[in-house]
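#onboarding

Welcome to the new folks! Below is a worked example of what a typical request in this channel looks like: someone posts a single protein sequence, and someone else replies with the predicted structure as tokens. Don't worry about understanding the tokens yet, we'll cover that in week two.

Example request:
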Amino acid sequence: MKQTIVSHTAVALLASGVTYLVLAGFPEALWPSRAHAQQAATGVKQTELFKVTMNDVMGRVVTIRRTERDPGNGSGPHRHPGSHTFGYVLEGTYEVKVDDGPLQRLGPGQTFYEAPNALHAVSRNGSTTEPVKYLVIQVSDPTKPATVPEK
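Example response:
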């Protein structure tokens, strides 16, 4: 029990520290080779800013990505079976609905959370004219799929 509490505390502290660095603009200056952008033809751009395997915390992987969605862009319902997913809106309006919760319209500085295997029912840019940018911080079990579309 004590080891579990220490492990969870370590994950929380690491995620907080890395998030601070990302928001302060340090990662690209400190680790330029770590910034890795992926542009999909679907109007979504994801830039991996940080990724590390925490061998002392059950091998969990922490990933931080900056996601940019074009106006009106969204994804279909899906789940992240092995991931705790935290989101932080940087610019624009992000609409999110998790499980049976309410549809939320989030603006800069607002956050969201998805528990492992929660239904991410809505994930979209809430504007038809402006892009949205948000950070996604995940603490993941690498033995489980990253994303599973909902049928």
